[in-house]
Amino acid sequence: MLNAEKEACVILDVATATISLAYHLVKSEKVKRVVPAVRNELLALRNELNTSDHSFDPARVDALVTEIVEAGSSQPSTKLATSLGSATLDLACAKVRYAALKVGSPNPWGVNLLAFDSLKKLSDVLYALARDEE
Questions:
Q1: Would you give the distance in Å from CA 80 to the centre of its chain?
Q2: pTM to 2 decimals?
Q3: Separation between Cα atoms, residue 67 and residue 38, nearest integer Å
Q4: 98-109 per-position pLDDT tens digit
Q5: Average pLDDT of the chain?
Q6: What is the pLDDT of residue 90?
């Protein structure tokens, strides 16, 4: 059986592939501009979890949160996504949240807090982008 961090890496592979698909489906120029940055941060975080590559910088995630989430103050949506782009971003958001749960699941002492916090923030950015795309 895979350990939680390895399993989270596989989930992040699915999320980044979904984000690549979303890039080709979204119509909003703002969303199209930000989606590659989110994908790059997820790839860097995945590499951080999977190898000794330390290219991940949480400050870049914080900048995305400030630019997208806090600026837009996206309210929770109770309706279905209205476009393929927003639906695909919602799917990627769900995958990233699932990866965060996997990273945070081993035990209170084995949690990679940086990864857990960053994944939660990146899922918030994806959610806000999906709302902007609607």
A1: 20
A2: 0.83
A3: 12
A4: 999 888 765 555
A5: 84
A6: 93
DSSP per-residue letters across 23-36? HHH---HHHHHHHH
At residue 70, does pLDDT exceed 90? no
Per-residue tokens: 76: 């929770």
List phi, psi (to 5°) of 110: -100, 5
Query: If you write DSSP's letter for every residue of 40-95 in order, what string do you get?
Result: HHHHHHHHHHHSS-----HHHHHHHIIIIIIHHTPPPP-S--SSHHHHHHHHHHHH
pLDDT at 75 over 90: no
CATH 1.20.1200.10 is held by the domain 4-133 = yes
Q: What is the largest CA-CA distance in the chain?
A: 43
Distance, in Å, from the CA atom of 62 to the CA atom of 110, rounded to the nearest integer, reads 23
H-run or E-run covering 112: none
Average pLDDT estimate for 48-63: 79
User: Are 115 and 45 a contacting pair, CB within 8 Å?
Assistant: yes
Please report the pLDDT score of residue 1 as a whole number.
39
Please tell me whether residue 134 adopts helix, strand or coil conformation: coil
Write the CA distances from 100 to 5, 9, 61, 118, integer angstroms: 9, 10, 14, 8
